Each structure stands twice: as structure tokens, then as C-alpha cells.
Amino acid sequence: MSKEALIKEIKGLKQERNAIILGHNYMDMDVQLIADFTGDSYDLAVKAMETKAEVIVFAGVRFMAEQAKALNYDREVLSPDLNAGCTIADALDTETLREYRERYPGVPVVLYINSNIDVKAMADYIVTSSTAVKAVRKIPGDTVIFGPDYNLATYVERMTSKKIIKVPPNGKCIVHGNYVPDYIREARTKYPGAKVMIHPEAPLNIIDLVDFVGSTNQMIEFARNSEAREFIVGTEIGMINALKLKVPGKEFYPLTTEPIARCPFMAMITLEKIYRSLRDDVYRVEIPGNIAEAVREAFERTRKLLGD
């Protein structure tokens, strides 16, 4: 089937099934163009809560679809590929987190939204890369348990001056966690005058070399409001698509190229798999009710803390 025919079929199935497609900022351009909403994981989780659609197709990795199901338990949520995992989420399991809770009784547990659903259910607060610093600053006390991304935890520690107990001690993103300073130096040489934007999942020795640190949505806002015309984008390479769509008229260059800059799990989500999801009703995301309720409570507790 040609791409044009595939897109026509997807649009027809969306209308027939009263479905929407949520597309993460890291998706390929074709997926972003067919999506009803694009954004970061938090943005899309909120969009899912606001929709009247009966079916939600989440064009993103598995933990994102799980989050959408937890927040919309009465809706059907489809994940185009259940094998689309996340190295950050898979770095932490419930047994390890339980051990940390017992070792540090009474210390609040703050989990990055990039966590698997059973782990999320053990959180007191669920944060994103855009809300982590603000939330940890507002949480009472001077110590929190934070996981599963080590680099984000270290960045939050710097920005809040709180003691961060990192769990696990080695969780990292397959893209951001492997950045080295030479990437920044080479990119600045290649694109002199361009502003460098980096995701806070990167190591601190990278963050110290850039012009802006922020989530994918924050990168969009920074690029939109900046007087600069050129930007080096230090995150998953699919972000270039989101920036081109949402900030037209400016130039964006990837900090690194494929395969280094491409998340293999994000790349699993294709137009063909989205079509299959809508046509064959696969793959349905199923979560135990008590797990979904615990995640909703942590999510809402965090929104209340942030004043959202």
C-alpha cells in the first residue's frame, strides 16, 4: 500500500472508530502529520484526559501508552508495538524500589514519567523533564528518592540543592545518556552562532556546555521565542520534525546523527503499525484497576503540588 493510501485508510478508520492518535515529539514526520495531537509525554497524557474519543492510539513507547490508559481507564488505548520499550523505564523494577522505600522510610518517592506502570504505582509523585525541578523544590523536606533516570536526578539535585537518593544508580537514556563533550564542540564548529539546546537526561558535563536545557516542549518554546535563527538540537533526532512543524522559518540541526541520535524503540512506531492498530484493534493496553488508581492518585497529587 502506498503512503498516500495508508494515510487515507488511517483517516477513515479514525472517523469510523471515533479514535484519536497521540504522537510524541520524537516520531517520524509522517506519524506527526497524521497525529491529532503532538507533544511530550506529559502533554499527551493530559490531552488523553481531555478527549471525547472512544479509542486512543498512542504513537510513542510503551510506558506512554500505559500512562494514557491509567488516566483514561474507561477508554480503549492501543499501543502500535508493545516491544517499544525504554531503557530508562526498564532500569527500575518494583523490587528495587521497594528496597529503597524500606531503607529510607518516610522519604518521598518521585518517579520520572519514563517508568513502567507497576513501578509508577509505588510513586508519591510523578514528574516529567519539564516539571521535575519545580516539583522537587515544592516537596516538603530536604531529601527525596528519585528514579529511574540518573542524569535527570543529578540535574534536579543541582537545581534544587536537595539530597537526591538516586534509584537505580545507573539508569539512563539510550540516546542522551551516551552524549560526550566532543559532540558539542564539533557541532559548534560546524554551526557557529547556532544556539545549543539539550535535554536534561544528558550528563552534567554536557549540560555545562550548552545554551539551553529543557524538555522537548520547552525546546519548542525556547526556539520560538529566541532571536536566534539556528539551533543545534541535543535530543532524539525525531525532535527535528516537531521543531520544523511548530517553529517554521528557523533552522535546526541534530547534535548527532543516526544511529546515535535515533531511539530504536521510538523508531518501531510506523504508519503501517498505526494502521494495523486501528484495523485489528491491537495492541490493547491492559492495566489492573488498583495499579491504574495508584498512578492516577500520584499524577493528581503532583498536579496539585504544581498548581496545575
UniProtKB/TrEMBL annotation:
Top-tier EC class: transferase
Keywords, comma-separated and alphabetical: 4Fe-4S, Iron, Iron-sulfur, Metal-binding, Methyltransferase, Pyridine nucleotide biosynthesis, Transferase
Pathway note: Cofactor biosynthesis; NAD(+) biosynthesis; quinolinate from iminoaspartate: step 1/1
SUPFAM superfamilies: NadA-like (SSF142754)
A Pfam short name: NadA
GO terms classed as biological process: 'de novo' NAD+ biosynthetic process from L-aspartate; methylation
GO terms of molecular function: 4 iron, 4 sulfur cluster binding; metal ion binding; methyltransferase activity; quinolinate synthetase A activity
Cofactor list: [4Fe-4S] cluster
Taxonomic superkingdom: Archaea
Natural source organism: Caldivirga maquilingensis (strain ATCC 700844 / DSM 13496 / JCM 10307 / IC-167)
InterPro entries referenced in this protein's UniProt entry, alphabetically: NadA, NadA_sf
Protein name: Quinolinate synthase
EC number(s) stated in the UniProt entry for this protein: 2.5.1.72
